[in-house]
Design goal:
There is one protein chain. By secondary structure, this protein is mainly alpha-helical. Helices cover about 75% and strands about 5% of the residues. It has ten helices and five strands; from the N terminus they run βββααβαααβααααα. The strands form two sheets. It has a three-stranded mixed β-sheet. A two-stranded antiparallel sheet has the order 1-2. The radius of gyration is 22 Å and the shape is globular.
Amino acid sequence: MLMAGRNWTTVSEFILLSFSALQPQLQALLFLLFLIIELITLMGNALIILVTTADTGLHSPMYFFLRNLSLLEIGFNLVIVPKMLVTLLAHDTSISFLNCAVQMYFFFFFGASECFLLAAMAYDRYVAICDPLRYPVVMSPKVCVWLAAASWLSGLPVATVQTTWLFSFPFCGSNQVNHFFCDSPPVLKLVCADTAFFEIYAIVGTILVVMAPCLLILGSYVCIGSTIIKMPSAEGKRKAFSTCSSHLLVVSLFYGSASLTYFRPKSNNSPESKKMLSLSYTVVTPMLNPIIYSLRNREVKTTLYHILHRSLGSRKH
């Protein structure tokens, strides 16, 4: 590629440095750990979808959104973890230009969609607690479908614009991505062009996509908290809080780790520390979500118990 009077070698593939700095024994241990987490994540989220679909008593808006969240977590996880496992096991650290772009696209798509879906779930809890008499009307099946569809579709413009724009830049020289997947900041460092305008867009876009749903969630929980405080009975307060606690914990895990990753000062944001923080919301949080909702939700636990009981009973006969 001829650029500014200099000859550059066109980049056709990238090298994911991942955890290559670690000893082979540690990489093998990481592979086993991440494989176990991957299996727990896929089975746990699939089980949530199965349980909330099988029991007609769990066909309420809250569980409808929970099924969508589990689908998002499965997709989000499959975009990142399989390639990371291959890198650790087979030491195949290369990823083609196209596959890197596809991985980044779906990372942005699922990440942005999850931000807005968590906001929709917060709105559902707000209506259920703050306006319970109108809840069946406000959160009708049609409204729930529209909110879920809007959450999924919100990831499309974010992923399309940012990925297309970034991969339209020329890449030359080093092709080593200092990460375990094709995230925007480490890939951007390999661009040999002026990226100042793109970086401004990326910062503004990230703030809007992350902070706008976050503010909606905070606003919903301020109103929920105010309503719970005014409730006369302690039992009513306990029930109201229990319906929100799982979602609030999931939101805290997701937004806490993502904010530490993307909004920390660059001076405190070394590549290794960013890898560790990225693991928390790409690998650990998708695994914890079904566990949190299963352990803290009596209806899910009861339905799961009945399904397992019937399954074991049919095998005995």
